Amino acid sequence: DGGITQSPKYLFRKEGQNVTLSCEQNLNHDAMYWYRQDPGQGLRLIYYSQIVNDFQKGDIAEGYSVSREKKESFPLTVTSAQKNPTAFYLCASSLASGANVLTFGAGSRLTVL
Amino acid sequence: QKEVEQNSGPLSVPEGAIASLNCTYSDRGSQSFFWYRQYSGKSPELIMFIYSNGDKEDGRFTAQLNKASQYVSLLIRDSQPSDSATYLCAVRVTGGGNKLTFGTGTQLKVEL
User: Fold this and answer.
1) What is the pLDDT of residues B33-92, one digit of tens each?
2) What is the tens place of the pLDDT at every residue in B17-31?
3) What is the spatial order of strands in the sheet that B61-66 belongs to?
4) Chain B within 8 Å of A48 (Cβ-Cβ)?
5) C-alpha dihedral over A65, A70, A73, A79, to 10 degrees?
6) CB-based contact (8 Å) between B76 and chain A?
7) Considering CB atoms only, which of B43, B46, B92 is closest to A107?
8) Sorting pLDDT into bands at 50, 70 and 90, what band is B96?
9) What is the arithmetic mean of pLDDT over A42-68?
10) CB distance from B2 to chain A under 8 Å?
């Protein structure tokens, strides 16, 4: 079945550690996105990529980094520079043209201890 | 002013009633409008999208778009307890790449 796989589903991190969240899609989508969601809040865009080897900062990119070496993969690293990293992280993908409907993965919940 | 605004709710409606969810946006260059449903602890799932002024119906759901007034709404007919969720409005702006800007969501509670 086609879809987006995020891992891990739950992650605990100590302060000062970098962590990497995985996002893999087999939908043959060109564009991929990372959003962050805090309790009672909407989704805020961290980074997005419309093509392999290219990505752009979203609204809250500070303290995060990404790479897009393969079409299928768009990992997100939460660095120690991110001051408040505890959140629900959502990866999404879409075609580059047409309806551009976003399909989301199941999410990764990061908790900083 | 937030780019996409929604009343956070909760909006409570009795089972079988019509639920009306509203969303306003600030950028007149917005071209595409999306409604997502999100159950607690889960990821958003698309309900429907709309591009043109007017109504678009899909089963029990109707999206309404009024670009002149810069609002988009979602009507849910014959509301069911399973419709209880947070409904997110999202907007795509021309020239903004393919990224979506989301509202904070409206929590809907359908009561028995």
Assistant:
1) 999 999 999 999 999 999 999 999 999 999 999 999 999 999 999 999 999 999 999 998
2) 999 999 999 988 888
3) B4-5, B19-25, B71-76, B61-66, B54-58
4) yes
5) -20
6) no
7) B43
8) low
9) 94
10) no
In DSSP terms, A11 is beta-bridged to A110
3 state DSSP class of B82? helix
Q: What angle do CA A111, A48, A44 make, to 5 degrees?
A: 50
Q: In this complex, do A45 and B105 lie within 8 Å of one another by their Cβ atoms?
A: no
Residues of chain A in contact with residue B46, where contact means CB-CB under 8 angstroms, are 101-103
Rounded Cα distance between A18 and A9, Å, is 17
Beta-strand relationship, B85-93 and B30-38: antiparallel
DSSP letter for each residue of B60-79: TEEEEEETTTTEEEEEESS-
Q: Does A40 touch chain B (CB under 8 A)?
A: yes
* Residue A17: φ, ψ to 5°: -100, 145
pLDDT tens track for A66-76: 999 999 999 99
Of A40, A41, A102, the CB nearest to B100: A102
Q: Which residues pair with A31 in a beta bridge?
A: A94
Inter-chain contact A90–B102, Cβ cutoff 8 Å? no
